[in-house]
Predict the structure of Paired domain-containing protein.
Amino acid sequence: MSRMVTTRDDIAAVIALYKANHVLREISAQTGVALRVVQNLVKRFRDLGEEEFPAPLPKSGRPKLLSPRTLKDISRQVRSNPSLTAREVKERKPSYESRLVTLCSTSPAR
């Protein structure tokens, strides 16, 4: 089961419905946000003193090395020339140097 990302718009909608005295199940049904997430958002809202919206929690995990734009550019290059190696891609675009250095190994293959 994949985890849904709760956006600021979702949080604002949940809190607005909560302030309008809607039941948590109704809020979940109307916004499409899981009931447990609605419960956690309302609890965090109450804990903050009901003056400010709770911010989305930071997502865990390792950050991406390459941006979607860089990945798209690299995949375009590889599609046009399938025999292209990572080292050649790096040589063609020096701006990728810092990002691709960890992807290109200098040790010989075993």
Observations:
- The first helix runs from residue 8 to 19.
- The chain has six helices and no strands.
- Residues 8-47 form one domain.
